[in-house]
Amino acid sequence: MITQGVKITTRCHDCGGELTRDVGQFTERGQVRWGIEGQCQNCPNAWCEQGSGATPEEIREALLAQQGPARLRLAGPEPSMVPVLRALRELHGLSLAQARAMAHELRTTGLTGTLVEMECVAAGLRRRSVAVTIETAAG
Ligand SMILES: [Zn+2]
């Protein structure tokens, strides 16, 4: 399982104390899921939340800000675009036009997103024998 998480500290709505939230993304059955676990340091205010589908922007921004974006590129000789388009459409439920735009990005500048998102796309592409590499800010 691939997971990526960061901590965000904010103020508690109930008591004004320090509230710590662990937010992150992970993959489950080839799909990106997200989670939030919040806990106040001063009062019993605590909750957790999980979801699939589009990750809330706040979580993506926190992951990207603290860990940097990951860049997915095609590796090796230019593959046929057919398996690439299939894999992208399968993962994201994209229209053919959207998948084409995404494939173009992958072929030129590389596709960017959080590490979990890119690992998930990479896994889908590798299942269709498309060689890819992931570059992260950390190296
Ligand atoms: Zn509190």
Which key features would you list for this structure?
139 residues, alpha+beta, 2 domains, three-stranded antiparallel β-sheet, 4 helices, binds zinc ion
List the topology elements.
Blueprint: E1 3-11, E2 18-28, E3 31-40, E4 46-52, H1 57-67, E5 70-74, H2 81-92, H3 96-107, E6 111-113, H4 115-127, E7 132-136
Antiparallel strand pairs: 1-2, 2-3, 3-4, 5-6, 5-7
Bound molecules: zinc ion.
The site of zinc ion has 8 residues, from loops.
Q: What is the H level of CATH, i.e. the homologous superfamily of the largest domain?
A: Ribosomal protein L7/L12, C-terminal domain/Adaptor protein ClpS
Number of strand elements: 7
CATH fold assignment of the largest domain: Ribosomal Protein L30, Chain: A
Structural class: alpha+beta
Bound small-molecule species: zinc ion
Counting DSSP H or I runs of 4 or more residues, the number of helices is 4
Could you report the average pLDDT, rounded to the nearest whole number? 91
As laid out across the biggest beta sheet, the strand order is 1-2-3-4
CATH architecture tag of the largest domain:
2-Layer Sandwich
Shape verdict: elongated
Please state roughly what percent of the residues sit in beta strands, choosing from under 5%, 5-15%, 15-25%, 25-35%, 35-45% or over 45%. 35-45%
Task: Extract low-pLDDT stretches.
Answer: none
- Global Rg: 17 Å
Question: What is the number of independent domains?
Answer: 2
What is the name of the CATH class of the largest domain?
Alpha Beta
Largest sheet: 4 strands, antiparallel
Helix proportion range: 25-40%
